[in-house]
Write a structure and sequence with these properties.
The protein is mainly alpha-helical. It contains 7 helices and no strands.
Amino acid sequence: MSDGVLYNHFADKDELILEALRLELANLGDQFRKAMPAPGTATVEANLVAIAMACTAFQAGALPLAGALLGRAELLARFLELIHAGDSGPQHIITAIAGYLDAEMRAGRAADDADSTTVAIMLFGACQAQLLGAHFGQMTDTAAEPDSRPTVAVLMRSLQPR
């Protein structure tokens, strides 16, 4: 493809890079949504483990996208603005997890006084910390996929119906 064709659609190389990264993040978000279990299936705990695995997969793909821009603060800021304005940012992953929890609360399968958004943020953050720890070898002996079951077990204490 000639440069002229590219610049008919993109103002410059940075805009092309941002669009490619945005599309990849949107793809990761679609994969996450497809992996989300439906409320009322399996147990809440098993579903949260599945959600954590999907969350870890999302972050394993998403972190390098933003990381590739760390040396270019202005471009990173544009990327973050772009993903937060659209439907592909990590805030949508947290919203989806909270929505799942809200549905389980309405069904009586989780405590109706639990703060679904806080639990979702905690699960998202724990997945990220475990992924980074495994990647850098600080929390595990290998770079294998982190085991989210202990994290989910802790979160389940706040989700048990009373």
